[in-house]
Amino acid sequence: MRLPRFEYSAPTTIDEAVAELSEYKDEAMIIAGGTDVIPSMKQRRFTPKRLVDIRQIRGLEYIQSNKDIRIGSLTTLGFIEESGIINQRLPMLAKAAGEVGAPQHRNAGTIGGNLCLNTRCWYFNQSPFFRQCRPVCYKLGKDDDKCQLFPTRKGKANVCYSVYSGDTAPALIALGADVCIVGPGGERVIALMDLYTGDGKRPIALGFGDILKEVIIPFPSPLSAGIYLKHRLREAIDFPLVGVAVNIALDPKDGSCKQLKVVIGAVASKPVIVAGVDEIVQGKKFTDQLVDKVSSAAFDKARPLPNLLGCSQKYRKNMVKILTKRALPLALQKLTDNYTK
């Protein structure tokens, strides 16, 4: 399938890119690795007038470790997967990056692109021929077009139920990451979770002219460990049907739980933080019963959208509980191994 016609530019500085994106507004799109943008353009999900290639901007591909760990937005997922610093200090992130697609995707795809991944839906992610058989969906159309899978009730606002399926975001959110965004108004730093709107039609909170510059991750506490587990149809290439990131920190005095974060991916239009798990485990030592309680809390919080091919909503909800129940002992085992070294 051929690409639609478009204009192309390759600015060499962030200021040039910001100015160009601000000028063209919704007629322009950023391209870096191109692993998501190019297939989407071939399937006419997007037909931007202009592609702004930011790969020529120097200084956005790096991993720095000082007071915290900073990763430039053009750093490839393959580089993160193999990085000594990341594997030593943030092994959960290395694992999550290694779960994305195939090696070819990871060698081209960037961390910025994976975090800004567009949402997916079995109606939206189809060929033009398939979509011509039905009315235009809300995500592809204007504000008065309705979702073709979940019709909007009379008097209710239109809602897009497409699913955010990035792998690195749940892991980074569990690690407490922030992101630095450069735009017409200068630089700003926000919590990574705030990058996601929860609106499937406009899932990423970047305005016209905004560029994600870097990811900022605080150093994890010495007695902490994280695990990211992903369930998909095939062992490679596929997007997750469910992803679960767990990050545990223990109190060095008595080994009780000091902090726990559980983040679920691929069940909603943004990653889902499981609220209340800290209260369940705070000051307690992990037991099988405690693991069951946390897994049940994740199960209760998950509301998988029934618009991904391959399995039912009920199955994916059950997999949230199963993956959480698997991840917690694995993280605790990593803590034990690291502590005894």
From TrEMBL:
Pfam families listed in its UniProt record: CO_deh_flav_C, FAD_binding_5
SMART domains: CO_deh_flav_C
InterPro entries noted in UniProt: CO_DH_flav_C, CO_DH_flav_C_dom_sf, Diverse_Substr_Oxidored, FAD-bd_PCMH, FAD-bd_PCMH-like_sf, FAD-bd_PCMH_sub1, FAD-bd_PCMH_sub2, Mopterin_DH_FAD-bd
Keyword Cytoplasm listed: no
Keywords from the UniProt entry: FAD, Flavoprotein, Oxidoreductase
Protein name per its UniProtKB record: Putative 4-hydroxybenzoyl-CoA reductase, beta subunit
Record bears the keyword Flavoprotein: yes
Native source organism of the sequence: uncultured Desulfobacterium sp
GO molecular function: FAD binding; oxidoreductase activity
Record-annotated FAD-binding PCMH-type domain positions: 1-222
